[in-house]
């Protein structure tokens, strides 16, 4: 019993010495396929669109593995091999470009990369290029129903969204067809006013506005 108690105490002491990870903030994404749509429209895009996406996080406050990231942002662009989010069909391999807030110091840059990879699962496992650019990210409103967002990462990525309106329903049988690409506490679909990637490394550039293809949300990641 003393042996096992000693192991438990040692584990607690080790955990207490590890840096805490807790970050929260805002998120936006835009794809090249509708995420809020009806079955007939979604099926018409499968395999033909939706393999490209841009998304980003703004950390309002928090630290990642002991490194403070207050106010910093990270943005990613991905090119998959198939429409992202289709059940039973792998979109891999996926290539990605990561854009890190140019204000970050070397330690923060590494932490932002680690944060982005953890939050997005396997989407950023093959990062072919990392850029350091000025990033601006704003969301209008002060409650969970915010849907008007603007993200600009240098000249490489731009996203602008607005709230969905009744006139955006086409078949009047729309629903949230795909889940967000990353881990979020809250997310709502939004209309994409602008969505573009103008960088290098993915073998493609794109602009995909005027679609029901965005999510705006919040994240809160914590490990004690």
List keywords for this structure.
globular; alpha+beta; 224 residues; 17% helix; two-stranded antiparallel sheet; twelve-stranded mixed β-sheet
Characterization of the model:
This protein is an alpha+beta fold and 224 residues long. It has one domain. It is 17% helix and 42% strand. It is built from three helices and 14 strands. The protein has helices spanning 2-17, 39-45, 106-119; strands spanning 21-31, 36-37, 52-64, 67-68, 73-79, 95-101, 127-133, 135-139, 149-153, 157-162, 175-176, 186-197, 206-207, 211-223. Strands 1, 3, 4, 5, 6, 7, 8, 9, 10, 12, 13 and 14 form a twelve-stranded mixed beta sheet that branches. The protein starts with a helix and ends with a strand.
Question: Helix and strand layout, with pairings?
Answer:
Elements: H1 2-17, E1 21-31, E2 36-37, H2 39-45, E3 52-64, E4 67-68, E5 73-79, E6 95-101, H3 106-119, E7 127-133, E8 135-139, E9 149-153, E10 157-162, E11 175-176, E12 186-197, E13 206-207, E14 211-223
Parallel strand pairs: 6-7
Antiparallel strand pairs: 1-3, 1-14, 2-11, 3-4, 3-5, 5-6, 8-9, 9-10, 10-12, 12-13, 12-14
């Amino acid at each position: 019993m003393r042996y096992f108690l000693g192991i438990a105490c040692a584990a607690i002491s080790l955990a207490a010495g590890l840096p805490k990870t807790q970050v929260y903030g805002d998120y936006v994404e835009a794809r090249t396929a509708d995420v809020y749509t009806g079955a007939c429209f979604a099926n018409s895009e499968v395999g033909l669109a939706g393999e490209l996406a841009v998304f980003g996080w703004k950390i309002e406050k928090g630290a990642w593995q002991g490194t403070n990231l207050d106010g910093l942002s990270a943005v990613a662009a991905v090119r998959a091999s198939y429409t992202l989010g289709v059940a039973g069909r792998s979109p891999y391999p996926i290539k990605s470009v990561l854009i890190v807030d140019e204000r970050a110091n070397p330690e923060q840059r590494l932490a932002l990369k680690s944060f982005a990879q953890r939050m997005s699962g396997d989407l950023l496992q093959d990062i072919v290029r990392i850029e350091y650019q000025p990033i601006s990210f704003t969301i209008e409103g002060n409650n969970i129903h915010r849907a008007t967002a603007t993200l600009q990462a240098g000249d490489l990525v731009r996203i602008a969204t607005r709230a969905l309106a009744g006139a955006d329903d086409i078949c009047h049988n729309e629903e949230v067809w795909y889940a967000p690409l990353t881990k979020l506490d809250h997310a709502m679909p939004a209309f994409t006013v602008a969505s573009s990637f103008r960088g290098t490394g993915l073998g493609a550039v794109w602009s995909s506005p005027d679609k029901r293809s965005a999510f705006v949300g919040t994240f809160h990641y914590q490990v004690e």
